[in-house]
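Our platform keeps sequence and structure together, in a single record for each protein. This encoding replaces a full spatial description with a residue-level series of whole-number codes. We quote a single record here, exactly as it is kept in our systems:
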Amino acid sequence: MAVLRAPKSFLGLPLERKLLREKLPGHAILCVSFVVAYFVLTRSDVILEEKLGAVVWYPALGLGFALMVGLSPAYAPLVMFTDALCAAINYHQPFRSWGSLVGTPINTLIYAFAAHLLRGPLGFDFALKRRRDISLYGLAALGAAVPCGLVGAVCLVADGSTPLADFKITALRWCLGDAVSLLGATPFLLIHVFPWIRWKLSRAAALGVAQKSLQQGSTAAGQLLETAGQAGSVFLVLWIIFRSPFSEFQPYYLVLLPVIWSALRQGISGATASILGVNLGMALCEGIYVQDLQSPARLGLLMLVVSFTGLIVGSAVSERYLADHRLREQTMYLNLLIANSPFGIVVVDSDLRIGLCNAAFAKLFLSTREELSGKELDSLALRHTEIEQLHQVATQVFSGSTVHQVIQHEYPDRRLCHLELHVVPLEQDGHVRQAYAIYKDITEQVMAENAAREHAESLKIGIEELQLRAEQMGLMNQMADFLQCCADSQEAYSVFMRFAPMLFNDASSGMLFAVRPEQKFAEAIVSWGASHLSEPVFDLESCWALRRGAPHWSHLAEPITCAHMPTNGSSWFLCLPMVAQGETIGVLHLQYEAGLFASNFDAACSARQRLADNVAGQLAASLASLSLRERLRDQSLRDPLTGLFNRRAMQDTLDRELHRARRRVHELSVLLIDLDHFKSFNDNYGHEAGDLVLKTLSKLFLTHFRAEDIVCRFGGEEFAVVLPEASLEDAGKRAEKLRSEARQLAIHYNGQALKTITLSIGVAGYPEYGNSAGELLRAADDALYRSKSEGRDRVTTASHQVSHA
């Protein structure tokens, strides 16, 4: 039902001003009607007046207050004017009296202010269907009646209508009369009359009043008969009080019967009608049948009690009707909610017996509501775990706890669904009698969450793999930078040894083998990790990777395993051949623990093999490049026939060693060696024999001199030897020994023994015979020249001859 609230302003609301302009003819009719009704209600045969001038029953006051409360306090001037006019016409009260000039304006403004409070700050409901509204109205009305009674009594004393000695009793009875009028007449007008007036004066949409709200109750025949019976009871009670043989007992209390009857049956609507009828009837009967009323105050007090009692009972009944209506609506909404809910809803008792369920619950368990009614909830479960979960939930709920849990339900076709279960206890008299459960099928949600979780895990793994590859690429780039700066293969192996543990951080150990094709074996060059996973040297046929020319995984449980693997353990081994420019130059060997391949063997093998292949390819390319560079350098620095350093290498080496000798203050010696009569070998035996002599003599040089000594083929049959940190005397002795060993060489060519080899040697030393390479070589060459000129086969120093043939 719409609740009418007044706008929160006083004497001049914008909305009401607009309505006044738009509905001016209607307001004019209202004003005229009000004046006429007010005039009728102030007649002496309608009101109930005491001898002292106070009025016990003054229904016109109720009409004026209803106008200001029901429509607007802005009607206060109309009420003020009408009251003064009626007082002048009906009671011949002069306009210039205290009552007209002071009492009427002040009292009207007081009631207008009370109307403003009810319409605004107090939040008053015109329908009066709640006890709160009756209490607010009673407080406002009685609060306004007290000052109005005082003002009225003062005016009566000032006009001389009442002696000053009766001021208190007059003020009290004035308050009583106003209270009776406000409680007996105004509520009826607010409920039954002014809603219709508001609807007529304003647009329904403006104040939110629907026309159907004006129709109080049904027009059914039964209700009309009851209303007629209630009206008849009022007449009957009045007859008993005033005209029956029992009237001498003054049974005024009987007036409560029709009022309470109407209040109990029709609420505040019937109560206000009965109150008005009783009060108006009593006032008329007192005026007609009781000519000399001894105590009108007692009658006024009775009317006040009847009015207040009827209002309280009527509002309480109406409030209960409203509560019952709301309860029925809520019950209807709840039933609709349960019936149309997409979730399964069930109510069970302490034995888990189903008392109520909706269609969604029945559909969830592949049954009907009729079939499920009375069944035990755990009988619908097929799995033992689900039954245990239901019993645990029941224990918690019937102990007073709310449970929120996800369970798995298995259908007869072995299909599983995930059910979200929310159970709350239903208490009665402080004890949990039943449980209210909501089932929600979240199978798709769980599947989506699992898929999202798997996707997130896959994405995480992918990101980690990308990060790992980025780190590996960074390490490989760093290793490539270092490899490009390496001068020889040994430095390259050192670089690989530094980066291998970081690149293969999940490998427990690893080894790098260099392949010696001419010797048909592989030799370990680099190793890292806790243990050596293979033999340090193995035959090339022992490795399947070298046989196939492709990576090979080995495990002791596998039938095809490399022979150089260990004979125990559960690890996996990867052999990867290192091929560059079509030539196998090595083998990369890695050991992995078996746990790394437990989840996805193929993916784990593929990732690790791909990394090893990239690293091995990069290292193989670098080693091949270094090998080619070393061969080219050797070709530029060594004599192709003898394998000794050539003249260019000797000159570079001599300059370097001289610089070192000067820095360290060491001695240095140089030997120039000439093969005597070499031309005769070529002439007598052929050039191949001459080449054989040169090769044999070169081997003698390499075995005779120290590793740090530099032996060079100076040109043709001439040789030069640089002896670091060797004195001139020591160099002469070693040269003499070389000459002797050369004479002892026995060389055969095509089954023919060649003649004895003799050497002419010149010796020079630093710093005695020069500070530069040119000076030393010239001094040694001079000594060699003297050896040859003096008969060959001898050693000569730059200053004297050391020995003779």
